[in-house]
């Protein structure tokens, strides 16, 4: 009776519905396929989570009830301060549920949201190169001109087409040779006749424009437009040969037809030559590294700006935000600028006038900045002000921090130590 009920249409509908089933795990972004075999470690830390994090109310968690068909062992799910799990496999060969703790990524998300930073674009410059972290723009990923997937008929331009973050087709630079061959056989070859019909329409429009231009130069009336049926085989073959030897033009036609993500545009010198003939060179922020797998914010933050003023209970409104104490992971050695850990994310030290960029000129080295601090508990610390964040196509968070103000640092130290640092710093000495 149980097996018959499990194979019923109602049971199959419930098991496949989003309300009663877990979403499919995301692919491992670090695995490399070589010769049909995936190469990669199964225990390494991934740049982003691949399985959904699951929580349960305390009264149900004490009974081992996590919403699955069998209870989980209370010994492992109760003896923790972060009761969050991820289920890798509901039914294994041993008829047990394969699960593990999901506190790592869940706590990282919670700490990141405590930073209160918006997610912004990492744009490309005029040469088509990625803008460095120090020059990240303040343009949010939720702006109307970039946060869209549907193109209205009146806005179906090439520039708007490239600025989307989601495409139905793949990004060819991310495909392996095997995946590219499979895509050609399953998606491209069945639409060959449709694409040739599109090219004939474009050729008819091109011939019509050429005839109208010649008639206008001679002062005659424009002839009737060229129809598709009037195009000869020789004209169409010459048009195909022209497209085949023009890579930028051919990819522009195929990408719009197959709805594929844009590729990187050429350099500035070559772009000035090609722009008058092509009419459009892509300015998409995803042309170099490819469009993201999900929304550019990845759901880690929904703030559009960090323009907020903090109100201190004693000192009133503050000009600068409260700084965050970062951990110095790697000191400044030689030409390296060092690395900081902010909320579980690795970032570079602040640019400009900071202790990391000061020239010692005979001064004593600073512990943690110039060499590894082994005396301080937990390592060297450094106050920074989180400004904004960005995500690369691999799902890694790129965090930008700046040097905090002296007053904001004193107020934060006063809150942690309980001393009147701000009052004593502003009181004139007698």
Keywords:
five-stranded antiparallel beta sheet, two-stranded antiparallel ribbon, disordered N terminus
The rounded Rg comes to: 29 Å
Strand order of the largest sheet: 9-8-7-10-11
DSSP helical segment count: 13
What is the chains' assembly state? single chain
- Span between termini: 91 Å
Major β-sheet annotation: 5 strands, antiparallel
**Tally of extended strands?**
11
The secondary-structure class comes to: alpha+beta
Strand fraction: 5-15%
Taken in chain order, the helices and strands follow as HHEEHHEEHHHHHHHEEEEEEEHH
Poorly predicted regions: 1-5, 124-129, 273-279
Overall geometry comes to extended
The level of helicity is 25-40%
Number of domains: 3
- The mean pLDDT is 80
Question: Could you explain the architecture of this structure?
Answer:
- Helices cover about 30% and strands about 10% of the residues.
- With about 425 residues, it is α+β, with helices and mostly antiparallel strands.
- It folds into three domains: about 1-100, no CATH class; about 140-280, no CATH class; about 310-425.
- The strands form four sheets. The chain has a five-stranded antiparallel β-sheet with strand order 9-8-7-10-11. It has a two-stranded antiparallel sheet with strand order 1-2. Strands 3-4 form a two-stranded antiparallel ribbon.
- Strand 8 and strand 9 form a beta hairpin.
- The longest helix has 27 residues, at about 190-220.
- The model is unreliable at about 1-5, about 125-130 and about 275-280 (pLDDT under 50).
């Amino acid at each position: 009776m149980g097996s018959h009920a499990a194979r019923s249409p109602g049971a199959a509908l419930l098991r496949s519905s989003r309300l009663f089933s877990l979403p499919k795990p995301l692919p491992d972004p670090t695995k490399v396929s070589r010769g049909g075999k995936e190469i990669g470690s199964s225990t390494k830390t991934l740049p982003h989570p691949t399985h959904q994090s699951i929580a349960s109310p305390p009264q149900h968690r004490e009974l081992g009830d996590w919403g699955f068909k069998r209870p989980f062992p209370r010994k492992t799910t109760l003896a923790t301060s972060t009761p969050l799990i991820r289920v890798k496999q509901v039914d294994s060969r041993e008829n047990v549920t394969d699960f593990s703790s999901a506190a790592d990524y869940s706590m990282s998300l919670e700490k990141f949201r405590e930073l209160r930073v918006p997610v912004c674009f990492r744009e490309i410059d005029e040469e088509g190169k990625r803008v460095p972290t120090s020059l990240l723009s303040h343009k949010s990923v939720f702006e109307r001109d970039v946060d869209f997937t549907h193109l209205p008929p009146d806005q179906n331009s090439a520039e708007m087409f490239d600025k989307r973050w989601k495409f139905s087709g793949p990004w060819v630079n991310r495909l392996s040779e095997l995946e590219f061959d499979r895509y050609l056989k399953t998606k491209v070859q069945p639409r060959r006749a449709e694409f040739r019909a599109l090219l004939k329409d474009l050729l008819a429009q091109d011939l019509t424009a050429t005839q109208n231009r010649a008639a206008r130069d001679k002062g005659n009336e424009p002839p009737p437009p060229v129809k598709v049926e009037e195009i000869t085989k020789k004209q169409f073959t010459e048009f195909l040969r022209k497209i085949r030897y023009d890579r930028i033009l051919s990819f522009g036609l195929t990408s719009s037809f197959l709805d594929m993500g844009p590729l990187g545009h050429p350099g500035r010198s070559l772009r000035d030559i090609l722009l008058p003939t092509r009419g459009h060179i892509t300015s998409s922020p995803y042309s170099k590294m490819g469009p993201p797998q999900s929304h550019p914010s990845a759901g880690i933050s929904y703030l559009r700006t960090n323009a907020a003023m903090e109100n201190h209970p004693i000192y009133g409104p503050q000009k600068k935000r409260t700084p965050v104490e970062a951990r110095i992971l790697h000191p400044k050695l030689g030409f390296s600028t060092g690395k900081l850990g902010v909320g579980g994310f690795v970032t570079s030290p602040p640019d400009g006038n900071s202790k990391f960029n000061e020239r010692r000129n005979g001064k004593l080295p600073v512990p943690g900045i110039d060499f590894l601090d082994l005396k301080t508990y937990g390592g060297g610390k450094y106050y920074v002000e989180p400004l904004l964040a960005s995500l690369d196509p691999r799902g890694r968070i790129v965090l930008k921090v700046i040097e905090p103000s002296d007053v904001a640092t004193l107020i934060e130290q006063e809150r942690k130590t309980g001393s009147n640092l701000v009052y004593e710093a502003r009181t004139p000495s007698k």
